[in-house]
Design goal:
Length: 392
């Protein structure tokens, strides 16, 4: 439940709080806080275990949670309110009849629309009632049909698999660093996650630079029309850095007498860098293309990621022992290449014809988001799967 609130709701709130051209940097920052903090933890825990004992790793979590609870209640008041459907301009389907206001239309009175509540003891209470009009059981079941939604399924693969491979890398680090020839202790093995933290920061920096600027550039080249598929450009650096990191880690980690500890850690940083880029790309695409089901979509991503990571944790060590490190990581890196290349099914880019200018042939790059991604959005807008299953 805690993971759901920190991932699904935080990512979905980016779409609620910011305009399209402002979401890239915010989503990148949210991803950095999530994954950067996760990879920073082993660096601290290794030292903590050697000095205070492993029990204190759990004690500190309980202490931090106890400190944060009153701060959450007092400093984060509930401001949820039911917004009028006519104000949902970025997710509503406007028909021809709705484009022109009726001459007999009257303004909405304050009693007909609910505004944000003022700060009070009621807004500060831990629970002040449900805000959704949909029943609890419908909300509970809504994510399950979306596992078959093409866009959600693509996002699960783009984000979830690379996160799972980082779990497998953690198993390798624990196996090869503590044993011969390096003989690392717990503290030194924990410090190996420093490369992952650096990779998360670099991934955040690159995603923050590219996410909004690339979307603005492609929108300009698309005659000022923005398409959510423009966010998928971030998969290109994910393919380059993430897959190169997987190949490189498999080669160097399988031969530590030659490569030592630095090169496996270097390629680990590249994997995490690609993971952050892929997470930002998939999250932005869900928010921009399917914002009305963003929470349910992120829930699907969360469930897939956790089940996939659990499976690798449960059987990853035996897989590495039986298959050896280099062949295993060569295989999973190749799988990741295929997953990244599947993005072309959602969006294509076409090269315009050559044009002459001062006797120089210039190749013009134009974007065309009219293949599967746009058709998929159009189809599910006209055939709402949740409405057909009576889950709305």
């Amino acid at each position: 439940m805690l993971t759901l609130t920190t991932e699904a709701l935080v990512n979905a709130s980016v779409g609620d709080l910011y305009f399209v051209h402002e979401r890239g940097k915010r989503m990148a920052l949210a991803t950095l806080c999530l994954f950067g903090g996760a990879f920073l933890t082993p660096v601290i825990v290794g030292k903590m275990t050697s000095t205070l004992g492993w029990q204190w790793t759990h004690y500190f979590v309980a202490i931090f949670a106890a400190v944060m609870l009153p701060l959450l209640i007092l400093l984060v008041p509930e401001t949820a309110y039911t917004r009028d459907a006519r104000l949902e301009t970025d997710i509503a389907m406007v028909t021809t009849a709705e484009k022109e206001p009726s001459p007999h239309a009257t303004s909405t009175s304050p009693t007909q629309s609910q505004t944000a509540p003022l700060l009070s003891l009621r807004t500060l209470s831990p629970f002040n009632g449900r805000k959704a009009q949909t029943s609890f059981f419908k909300l509970l079941l809504r994510p399950f049909p979306l596992f078959l939604h093409p866009s959600i399924f693509w996002a699960m693969l783009i984000q979830g698999t690379l996160i799972g491979w980082t779990v497998l890398i953690g198993i390798v680090l624990a196996a090869i660093m503590i044993g011969p020839p390096l003989w690392f202790n717990e503290v030194q093995t924990g410090y190996m996650y420093g490369g992952a933290v650096i990779g998360a920061v670099l991934g955040f920096a690159l995603a923050g630079l590219m996410a909004d600027s690339s979307a603005r550039y492609l929108t300009k080249r698309n005659n000022g029309v923005y398409e959510p598929e423009f966010r998928l450009i971030l998969v290109i650096p994910q393919l380059i850095f993430g897959c190169a990191g997987l190949y490189g880690f498999g080669i160097t980690a399988s031969n530590t007498p030659t490569y030592g500890w630095f090169w496996p850690d270097f390629f680990f940083a590249l994997v995490v860098m690609g993971m952050v880029l892929g997470a930002v790309a998939s999250a932005l695409y869900i928010v921009d293309a399917h914002r009305e089901i963003a929470v349910e979509g992120f829930t699907c991503l969360l469930v897939f990621k956790n089940i996939f990571s659990f499976g690798l944790t449960f059987s990853g060590y035996e897989w590495l022992v039986s298959g050896d490190i280099k062949p295993v990581f060569t295989a999973i890196a190749s799988v990741q290449v295929v997953i990244c290349c599947s993005t072309v099914l959602l969006c294509k880019y076409r090269l315009a014809t050559y044009r002459k200018y001062r006797k120089v042939h210039e190749l013009t790059f134009c974007s065309c988001a009219d293949v599967f991604g746009k058709k998929n959005r159009s189809f599910f807008a006209r055939h709402d799967i949740l409405e057909k299953l009576k889950l709305k």
